[in-house]
Amino acid sequence: MSEHEHHHYAFETLAIHAGQEADPQTGAVVTPIYQVSTYKQDGVGGLRGGYEYSRSANPTRTALEENLAALDGGRRGLAFASGLAAEDTLLRTVTKPGDHIVIPNDAYGGTFRLFSKVLSRWGVEWSVANTHDPESVRAAVRPNTKVIWTETPSNPLLGIADISALAHISHDTGALLVVDNTFASPYLQQPLALGADVVVYSTTKYMGGHSDVVGGALVTDDAALGEELAYHQNAMGAVAGPFDSWLVMRGIKTLGVRMDRHSSNAARIAEFLTGHPKISQVLYPGLPEHPGHEVAAKQMRAFGGMVSFRHRDGEEAAVQVCNRAELFTLGESLGGVESLIEHPGRMTHASAAGSALEVPSDLVRLSVGIESVDDLLADLQRALG
């Protein structure tokens, strides 16, 4: 499927076919795993198909990158060894010492650690804003602001940012709008179409979908920025390996049908939790009472598979729910076919303790899988006691 054909097809078709042409030598319908580091050249400087060394380019990774670009409606997709590798490459491409970044007050702990412990030592300034409130973001922008960063839905409080509103602010001020779309996936939300400049993913999560690969991605519709990112991807070297690229492609083929089930299961679970006497608050953008519900309904196809809740009896009670769950596996990460449960304050977001991004100690986060929702509900009923 050539790039000019992409706009003719729906998402589910692109997920299976974009960048996935049959192997010209054998007709294999699945992209081969090119587990190779170097390539025979047709004379000095004569690269066959443009390949010379697999850090610079690898046919399996190329197939994934073409697929990623098509799914987000971008001109360039780039695959990395992890989501944080993608973020680091992006930030070191578009910022320099003395520049400023607006970061969200609700974000993945690893992203916050990258800003606060790594980039700050390199002289990049950052400040926190409520990215679910556009005016808070506008007020945080400085003359040296180069990036406005947001997650929507956010991790782990499931906040919703209005991507179009933030895009207006970023473009008014000359900053780039970066959207971490990991929780939604490109199936549920298309940030580039809403005005974002770059979309970031941990492909470990819903894209891979089977808890068997770690990866990251960047997608942009700006050809010049895409070239600059590709230059730094090669120069810095944190690329996705061929087998990891193949696993992410394998997962993407079923992304649409999986996200439908994740979303429907999560909606049922959020409804159940809302009526439970031991829970003080349920955080899920599909609930009408969620403050971001209307924006989410406007910019998302469905509301996703992540649900968080706060336990009425505090931190230890929240921890015990995590320990008592059986079908919900106690573990970090998210987005796999299996359901996971965790305590963000002690696990994924421990790096944010004591900061403006510290999460409530009574919070439990669920990654709702694609199992029978009745079995999942029964497991939560037991765990809550």
How would you sum up this structure, described in words?
The chain is an alpha/beta fold. 36% of the residues lie in helices and 15% in strands. It has helices at residues 11-17, 59-72, 83-94, 109-118, 134-140, 163-173, 185-188, 223-236, 242-252, 255-274, 293-299, 315-324, 373-384, and strands at 76-80, 100-104, 125-129, 145-151, 176-180, 198-202, 216-220, 279-283, 306-311, 329-330, 340-342, 363-367. The strands form two sheets. It has a seven-stranded mixed sheet with strand order 1-7-6-5-4-2-3, sandwiched between helices. Strand 5, helix 7 (185-188) and strand 6 (198-202) form a beta-alpha-beta unit. It is globular. The N and C termini lie far apart (53 Å). 51% of the residues are buried. The model has no long low-confidence stretch (mean pLDDT 95).
